[in-house]
């Protein structure tokens, strides 16, 4: 069955069709909002100034906001304050026992954590927007501001914080009523929206003779190779054999079959680079707008391509790879469930020995996954610093785009298969990162 036929099948299922159309309409709203300027700012002149002076750091930050940051629109902060708040509360649930108990209260506890995360998002957004407002007033002597002062600062805080809150709500609506993870899809839409500009700027440089056609073909080959590598690793699994003992209940015999426990090479998915980027962006975004020499020096040290940035970025990717894997995958619980249902790993004693074995295998896989994530995400710095690529495009953006696309396609396939329609692949089902 062709891809076109699979796409046609989507519209044969009313519920799936409505979910897809709702998702697309919400993403269209996001892209429209990304072009609405913040009041009191000469957006066109400021955008040109930021693009010329911002360099790689502005390109990196702008990638996650879909170009809204360089234009200083109402969605300039993007969804990153929400992600920062999510990181904070995921860490606090581990550090603070009381908060950890709330998180384990099922649906009620989850709703409480979500509510706390929303409050923290507003606080973080207000802090970042205030820093941006103060920085804009000091940038070029306030030449880009119509009426500097506290009225402008408060207006900017309200506008940018409201924009982030709206995107947070938009993402939650997509997750609940659309298809795929709403927050990830918003980031995905922002990244994909930058692709046409990158292509046009590259073509213009080729026409001007500043880039050779062979170099462009080399870049295209690198991108295709990276996409292939990402798909290969994201679908990679380590299968642990599991045997179930036979049980006799009355006159019936249960169990005795063999199966496997799939452990993904990259269990954490795209979360580590997103979290790591958010952590680095929080101080660097504010510092980049404040015209104070020592603050500007910090911003330069945290910009892509510097040694400090690379070390911090790689270190945070490793940390969040292990941390997030530990949050979503508990070897002790897996071992207890296996033992409860009469399952065991051949050659490994049930209980503690099984959990230790799963933990050991998962630790090694997580290390491989973290190395893969770090290598892919550092790729743009190599392309920019060594090969003078004229735009920020590469590992992180490709990783998020491909990862979110795989997850979304797998969800669509699940809807199609449950209603006896063939999915996008001719053989077998596309495995998502949570399968």
Q: Percentage of helical residues?
A: over 70%
Distance between the termini: 24 Å
> Within the CATH hierarchy, at the fold level, what is the topology?
Preprotein translocase SecY subunit
Oligomer: single chain
- Series of H and E elements: HHHHHHHHHHEEEEHHHHEHH
Second CATH tier, the architecture: Orthogonal Bundle
Provide the CATH superfamily.
Answer: SecY subunit domain
Mean pLDDT: 77
Largest sheet: 3 strands, antiparallel
Q: Which residue ranges are poorly predicted, with pLDDT under 50 across at least 5 consecutive positions?
A: 427-435
Q: Helix count, per DSSP?
A: 16
Round the Cα radius of gyration to an integer and report it.
Answer: 24 Å
Shape: globular
Protein name: Protein translocase subunit SecY
InterPro entries: SecY, SecY/SEC61-alpha, SecY_CS, SecY_dom_sf
Pfam family, one: SecY
Keywords: Cell membrane, Membrane, Protein transport, Translocation, Transmembrane, Transmembrane helix, Transport
